[in-house]
Amino acid sequence: MRVLIISLEAPLDDGRVASGNAVRTRQLRRALEGAGHDTTQAWLAPRGQRADGAFHTRDQLAGIIRSERPDVLLVGWWELLSLLPYELDAPVVLDFIAPRPLESLFETPGRVAAEMGRLRLALRRVDLVLVGTAGQAGLLHYPLIEAGFDLRQANPVCVVPMAGDICPGQPPEPGTAPLTLVAGGVDWPWRDAGDYLDAIEAAVAGSDGRLALVRLGDQGPDGRAGLLSHGDYEALLSGQAHIGVELGHANIERRHSLSFRAIDFLRHGLPLLCSDHLPIARWVEAYDAGWVVSDPADIAAILERLRRDPEAWRRCRDNALRLATERFEPDTAAAPLLRWMASPRPAPRLAVHGVAEADPPVIGVPPLRERLARRYRLARRVLLARMLGRKPCGDAIVMVTRSDLFPTDHGAAVKIVETARGLASHDREVALVTDDRKHWLRVSEDGHFEKVRYPWWLKLFARPLPWVKLDHYTRDIPESNAFLYLPMTDGSWFWRVLHVAGRTGAGVLQAEFPAYALPCRQAADVLGAATVLVEHNVEYARLRDQVPELSDDQFRRLRAIEIDLCNRADAVICVSDNDRQRLAEDGVHPGLLHTVPHGINLVAFDSAVAAPARSQFGIPDHALLMAYHGTFAYPPNRDALQMFADEILPRLQAEGIDAHVLAIGHSPPSGLHPKIHCTGSVETVPPWLKAADMAVVPLRDGGGTRMKIVDCFAAGLPVISTAKGIEGIPVVDGREAMVRDEWDTLCAAVANVAADPALAERLRSGGRALAESLDWSEIARRYLAIQSTLR
């Protein structure tokens, strides 16, 4: 089996301080490899840090998963689950060794409820959960049921305690050197060992040098030894220490915790001096592998006996090694996981429908006023259906959207038009309803758009357009984006959607952007059709990023509207897992959410001939030509051009590189820089991209998926981008694209690609291979697969 381990930290390095997570990951990795499995580790790296297996974003992790093609994913920290792609073939194992919600009770009690909600959402992605103790397993049963696990069929929780290789130490014999106790580590709010350690310190002070205490931890005035590298820590346990200390006051976290330090002490042959409330205490007592105390006052007597009778220490040392060997040796501890790995499988889930009650409920009778309202709605539905002479609901699809679709010189237009063509190519009747009050659009099987006039009488159901706009644009909506919310106040959308859906016999009404879901839902209720909402971005999040004047009240209102419309749809299609995760966390039911990325028309790119950009703009043949395309009315794209002028071109010029920018798209700003050349609106983008040497994407803001990146891949351009600029695209840095977030490193990447033809060709090949998996025909097939489940 190929196992991809996804961890919070880099692989353990003996020359550096090691966390419990890193120790645990090494333990599991060695156990899996010892059982014959192939393992690879990917880890969440700090920004700017690069190494094999390092990732910084969800998209980079998706690229690693796509490259490795693992049979099983082992996730080492629960919050990393939110970074996983939603569409996974491999089962997912979560290592939940630390009782994190209990830790949060002590760190951030006000956030516990929200964190439990996130945990339940994360557990929906998991097939097996590893815990350290039976008590931890019990804590998970209710959250697992809430996350949809059917615990009647199987228990998806395995107890796999901390473990490690047996390394008997050789400390100096007691009597020839002080009997040395080791305690400490990082201080946490849930670990309060002060009184116990004070008692040990008092015993040491009165021992005439025959006792010693080494306190590991952060440097401070209390004489601690500090946090040692893992190698030095192991050497201390092997060559100097006699007794391990795991003491503290009881609380709910401590009663469920099994620390890696306690296991480290035992496997080095250090008897354990521990508190009686710890899960390890029962094993220490059963094996006589140390001393269990319930009060700091017990410590002095224990240490005095040991000082006088070293043989008691030797007996407990041998028992500590026996306990570690029989209970906490890696293969023994990992046995439940290794048994599951023999046949990894998805966990059984509960059906989404409710369970029938023993006594079926009877139909209630609502109050008279509500009953009359229901009769009115039913009569209205029947009357409207007869007025329209509608066809029965069939396979036709009505897309409801904005009207600025031609020319297709911005991302939303390309996505909507190509989705419509892709759906039509699969033998579906496809129609588009837009702001145009005179015509709707019919899409032919070969991808042509035909205008069809509405009947004259539809005007009777619409307020005059100037009146509608005066009403709408004076509402509390950001003016720059108010057009996207017009269906919220213009009732004529409902009538136009109803007419076109009835005429075509549509079974699916597909809203492009949230507000268009309102007339879709209203018409679907009349027609019995399904409603699909396509989220090009998480709109309220995009507006928060791009509209400085957006107030908190406006943001909350727009978020509530969008979440409500999502939950009223029958399915919500996101363009990236980033957006899908955000919507799920903010309240959209996870079962409604799907991910379908942007696509690409490869034929259009393959047949395109490079535009004469160099001759048109007077760009020398030897100069480096960087492409950037998008609609420059969109603030993040304008900001990206400003970054070319302020940051990128000056740096390249300082390195002696004659570089120019080809800015492709309508509404460009003027006069930014003499080497930024703006095409304005173009009929088609591919010829202009093919005129460039590479694509550079210095985006700092924006949402959704970067369609421009896929266009550049299809055009055969090497791509250098910020992480924000390539968000939503599952790339591996250095294979499909170079991802750099600092201007100096981004410019260095541009220079390297320009000077290294082999590197440029590798990026071209990797990007093109990714683009070929995103052909619009395949994207449309994924839409149809989702729609087929709704009826």
Automatic annotation (TrEMBL):
This is Glycosyltransferase. InterPro entries: Glyco_trans_4-like_N. Residues 411-602 form the Glycosyltransferase subfamily 4-like N-terminal domain. The keyword Metal-binding does not apply. GO terms for molecular function: glycosyltransferase activity. Keywords: Transferase. The keyword Cell cycle does not apply.
